[in-house]
């Protein structure tokens, strides 16, 4: 099931948190996805298609607000893909934490902190240069994002998005077609996975 993201959805990419509308349709971008088969977050490539107009949805959690496309789903903490319009207050979402340590961005997982540039190099076998930022992170580890409210937003450009992933694109628990979205323009903190 293809997904369409709102123009003002912030994707977390190898360039940090960027609005979908800032990416060039048809050009591959590095995004981060929870991959159930691997049991971890993986770097993957994604391409946006040409935009169309549709109603957007606004999802608010304790970590911020997200703008989503009309047919998008969000990955819950128990691995289910729930359409944004069906989310209820109190639903716990599968979140991903990024922190700054020694000037590099690290993905925080259950057992370790993994440098983001190493994750990209490992998963995509590129000559990527690490994204380094000097400001310290004040983010607290272990935050789970919980839905506070969901509502209709304004009409927006929405872009079809496809991920380079061999798993089925069916929003099942085995699908690796989710991508990390971010609530704001910062590079550290916590985001959630959307389909």
Task: Give a written overview of the molecule.
It is a single chain. The protein is mostly beta strands. The protein has one domain (3-194): Endonuclease - Pi-scei, Chain A, domain 1. The protein has one helix and 16 strands. Strands 1, 4, 5, 6, 7, 10 and 14 form a seven-stranded antiparallel beta sheet that branches. Strand 2 (10-13) and strand 3 (16-19) form a beta hairpin. The longest helix is centred in the middle third of the chain and has 9 residues, at 116-124. It is globular. The chain starts with a strand and ends with a strand. The model is unreliable at 128-141 (pLDDT under 50).
Q: Which terms summarize this structure?
A:
globular; 195 residues; 7-stranded antiparallel sheet; Endonuclease - Pi-scei, Chain A, domain 1; 1 helix; mainly beta
Short description:
The chain has 195 residues and is mainly beta. It has one domain (3-194): Beta Complex (Endonuclease - Pi-scei, Chain A, domain 1), CATH 2.170.16.
Which regions have little confidence, pLDDT < 50, spanning 5+ residues? Answer: 128-141
Kindly name the structural category. Answer: mainly beta
How far the N terminus sits from the C terminus, by CA atoms, comes to: 9 Å
Mean pLDDT: 86
Please provide the count of β strands.
16
Kindly state the percentage of residues in helix. Answer: under 10%
CATH level-four homologous superfamily name: Hedgehog/Intein (Hint) domain
CATH class: Mainly Beta
Radius of gyration: 15 Å
The biggest sheet amounts to: 7 strands, antiparallel
How much of the polypeptide forms β-strand, as a percent range?
over 45%
Order of helices and strands: EEEEEEEEEEEEEHEEE
Count of distinct structural domains? 1
Number of helices: 1
What is the CATH fold-level name? Answer: Endonuclease - Pi-scei, Chain A, domain 1
Global geometry: globular
CATH architecture: Beta Complex
């Amino acid at each position: 099931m293809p997904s369409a993201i709102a123009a003002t959805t912030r994707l977390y990419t190898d360039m940090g948190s960027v609005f979908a509308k800032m990416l060039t349709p048809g050009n591959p971008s590095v995004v981060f996805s929870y991959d159930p088969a691997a049991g971890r977050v993986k770097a993957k490539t994604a391409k946006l298609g040409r935009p169309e107009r549709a109603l957007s949805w606004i999802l608010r959690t304790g970590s911020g607000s997200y703008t989503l496309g009309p047919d998008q789903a969000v990955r819950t903490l128990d691995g289910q893909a729930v359409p944004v319009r069906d989310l209820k207050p109190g639903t716990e979402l599968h979140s991903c934490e990024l922190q700054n340590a020694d000037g590099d961005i690290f993905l925080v997982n259950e057992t370790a902190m993994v440098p983001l540039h190493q994750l990209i190099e490992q998963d995509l076998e590129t000559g990527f240069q690490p994204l380094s930022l000097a400001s310290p992170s004040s983010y607290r580890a272990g935050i789970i994002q919980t839905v506070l409210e969901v509502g209709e937003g304004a009409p927006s450009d929405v872009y079809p998005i496809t991920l380079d992933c061999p798993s089925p694109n069916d929003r099942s628990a085995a699908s690796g077609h989710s991508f990390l979205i971010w609530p704001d323009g910062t590079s550290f903190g916590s985001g959630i996975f959307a389909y």
